[in-house]
Amino acid sequence: MTTRDSLGLLRAGALLPVDEPPAAHEPSDTFSARTYTHPALGDRPVVRLVPDAIAPAEDLALEFLGLRLTGATRPLARGRRQALGFPGWALVNDPANGRYALAIVKDIERLARLARAKPGNARDGFEREAPDRALALHPRARARIASADLAAALARTLRGGLLDELGWPALEDAWSQLAAGAIQVGYACPNLILNDRSRALVVGPSGIVLAHDLRQPPGIATLAPIRLLYAGGQLLVIWHSKNVTCGYWSARPDAVFDLESGALGAGLVLVGELLRAVHSCRLASLPRLSAAGLRVAQDLRDLQAQRPEFRLELLAADFHELLRTATALREAESARPAWIGAARRAYAPVGSLRVMGLFSEAIVSSAGYAGVVTYVCDQHGQLWSIANVAPGGPERCQLAYSAPVDLGDASFDHRSLGRAGLHLQHATGAGNHRLGAGRGVGAVRADGCNWTDAPLVGLWSASLETQLDRAWTARGRPVDERRAGDDLLFVRGVLMGAREDALALRVGNVAMAGFAPGAHAELAYQHNLRLFAATPGLPLLIVGRVAFDRPRTLLLLAVAPDAPAAASAPALELPPVWAGRVNLGLDQLQGAHLHGAAGGIAVPTAGAAFSRAVDPLSPFRMRLQQVLLGGRAAISPATWSGVARDESQLERNQLPTAAQLLRALKSAPLQREGRRDRLAHAWLGGRTYLTAASTRLQRLGWLTPSPSGRGRG
């Protein structure tokens, strides 16, 4: 039997002859037959084939059930190594209290079955029921908790006062301005919307963003339900009654319109029709259109349920993708493959590769997926990615970071993969440069290299302008066609301190801001950036992701020490196992890693690097959002005076194309001849222009933002 045959049989769960040599890349154990007896069975024995490594746990578990070990054979076979799970671990490590672990086995098995259909309920049940039951049955733990002295800890807390982080002065100020007992709270992340049915306040992280005295439209009862949405710097006030639903924007409270169409008028029937169309698209093998429709349906559900995760801009982007894909498929004589999409990612042979680990990134998505993506660089300087992303929360990132990644016959974890080298034979890759892990791939571990050695050092040799052009070009491609690393920037910078929640960086002659990509407590971003903030003058090699909507701003992903300009400059000294780099979301720095912090370097107190650029397209963006929410009523003749002001503002901003598209949007509902979907077609044209113009303005202003915020349309 060959080594490959043995490895395949072991992974399939087979037992091999005991004298079969162990496979190099698959841990194995010997198995023995163990005999047990029970008084209820008389002289009939129970024989079990048990891995020798966990035999003590098996004996203890059966002993609690009344089965007594009477004999064991010599090793009879060899099989795949099995982990010491629950309750075996508890029985081996704490046999005196093993019965408490066994007492909750049935609860855990029941919750495991529930997890297949309702994972959220199973998680809540596990967190609530299993620990309580184990605690109630464990007298020693219960006695220790009962004897804990909470009075001293409470007294210290009361004397010291509450932490400032637990307070929100802006919210307290807003709360004091409204009538107590009648305050209702809504969400428009990152803002809160408070109202007492006579006044509404939008509260942001640093203060009250907007205040508005509510107007009651004619024909609406005083106690009619009210709903508030914050978009485009205004409040959309919606009143519901038995016969009518109407609303107005806070900037024009006199312009009341009915809400019988648009996203706010999309009830269960319309969402059901949309989902039925999504199903038809799947049957017709149109995956891109079906995926866009499914996202829009979910956005509409979030809007109707007033979920805090709803984002109006995300709904607009998804609806734009749905409309433009459907239009392209309907009007083209022969559709391009890009408009059809791909149901599954296709992997093609890419030959032999010699890759070097670059860094690993923690991934946490709003769709409920989490894990790690590791980037590697081949001998030609091209980036590839290897991912371990699956359903789960932020806590899954560390598990994926240390979990094995199978590449052919080789097995690595992401922690070492992002620092080591690989020789790949018969490698496969997708169009977005994600490497495949098929059985035909051959992989051999090799030595890695520092960021200052070839081929990795070449990533930092490209100019900042060239890298920005690459990032913006990739942004315009479909998601499946964006290659790994196209949105990354590789820069050499010096830490200049901190301002609020951002690191101040100097990259050449450019001042930049560095933010943490996420604030999850399970990730190390905030901890690491806090240590860096106290070390101004530290030279670093930086890998960051472009924040497209913020000039000169990076989302920091990984760093490595750079050569200091002076002997007195602070230094970053890392453990050898880290191979000279820090994955900021996954590796936790210690204060001992930072040496010689320099003093006297000013921390910036203001600057364009920390502020959003003025958006000259804001009036046009707001009108498109209003039409998306309210349909034809949001562009009715009652709103035309406000639309005329927006047209004038766009022309003053040197954006005549935007003004022309706004006029076309205004006139679309009045034209009865021609296309029935004229309003949708006008909205699609406006949103397409807005996306292209915003992208161009953001690119022009990312390094040199214009103080006037003006561009040419």
Written description of the protein model:
This protein has about 725 residues and is an alpha+beta fold. The chain folds into seven domains: about 5-105, no CATH class; about 105-140; about 165-260, no CATH class; about 270-340, no CATH class; about 350-450, no CATH class; about 485-610, OB fold (Dihydrolipoamide Acetyltransferase, E2P) (Beta Barrel), CATH 2.40.50; about 620-705. It is about 35% helix and about 25% strand. It is built from 21 helices and 28 strands. The strands form seven sheets. Strands 1, 2, 3, 4 and 5 form a five-stranded antiparallel sheet that branches. The radius of gyration is 31 Å and the shape is globular. The chain starts with a helix and ends in a 10-residue tail after the last helix.
Concise overview:
By secondary structure, the protein is α+β, with helices and mostly antiparallel strands.
Q: Quote the CATH topology of the largest domain.
A: OB fold (Dihydrolipoamide Acetyltransferase, E2P)
The residue fraction in helices comes out at: 25-40%
Give the N-terminus to C-terminus distance in angstroms. 72 Å
Average of the residue pLDDT scores: 78
Q: Architecture of the largest domain, CATH level 2?
A: Beta Barrel
Q: List the domain count as a whole number.
A: 7
Largest sheet: 5 strands, antiparallel
> According to CATH, what is the class of the largest domain?
Mainly Beta
* Number of E-type strands: 28
Strand content: 25-35%
Q: Give the overall form.
A: globular
CATH superfamily of the largest domain: Copper binding periplasmic protein CusF
Structural class determined from secondary elements: alpha+beta
**Rg from alpha-carbon coordinates:** 31 Å
